[in-house]
What we know:
Blueprint: E1 7-9, H1 32-46, E2 50-52, H2 53-60, H3 64-76, E3 80-82, E4 88-91, H4 93-122, E5 125-132, E6 135-142, E7 148-150, E8 156-158, H5 165-171, H6 176-184, H7 199-212, E9 215-218, E10 225-233, E11 239-248, H8 254-274
Parallel strand pairs: 1-7
Antiparallel strand pairs: 2-4, 3-4, 5-6, 5-11, 6-8, 9-10, 10-11
Helix pairs in contact: 1-3, 4-8
Amino acid sequence: MDDTNPIIVGGGAAKGAPKGQPRREQNGASIQSVDRALTLLETIAELGGETTLSRLASRTGLNISTCHHLLATLVARGFVTKGLGRRGYALGARILYLSHVCLQVDLPRRAQSAVDRINQTTGETVQLAALQGDELVNVLKRESRHAVRVDGGTMGTAAAVHATATGKAILAWLPEDEIRRVVMAHGMTKFTPNTITDFADLMEALRVVRRNGIAFDREEFRPGVICVGAAIRDQSGAVVGAISCSTPTMRASEEHLDQIRDEVLAATRALSLELGAPVHAKAP
């Protein structure tokens, strides 16, 4: 179908040092304390994510006192936490945060082929979105191949996390207090007569998303548009983004929606496995 004049539906809004040894930059610019702190983090990881102070000192060649002072700073910043026993240390939650952000930065490249495949198979508009702070951000988009197409919106932020398939697909796997924080940061704007504007109703809708693994936006964000989305998970089971596919209601037959759902689920499951997600990840 010729899409030269498309009709838009729903328009709107260097080599490393030997294992365990501090690295030395060839230009002499290395800051020793930073170098040693990073070596401690890498060594804890190499030892399974948790170890003792004495073993860290032995493995890195640093004295006990130096290790203790560096670890105290890393503990204060959340990169290390006290582990088993009085002298035990483990990698902290801040490491997971950095890993999560790193995956989000790399996500468009990883998801490119999946987004293209859904677009080619369904002919519809496909988007990749991520939650960055309180903002739902569209980071990749492929326009519909039809002359009558959905307005996928511009790249950037959208305060419609409660009303979109990508938003609900992501929210469904967050703890309730985090869902409330994200949603209430912008309020529950009523975009259409179908928009969910009550938090309790939203929580019930998200329980359905968790149960089925798929989120629907049935004209909740834009009139005349139905959208299907699912979450992408990382090795910890946390959500790093979501893929959605949108179609005008005029093409939204049950057969077409089933095809879209199957394509979106297959793509997000494959990406999640690529990122190391547990095969049977549970909701928090």
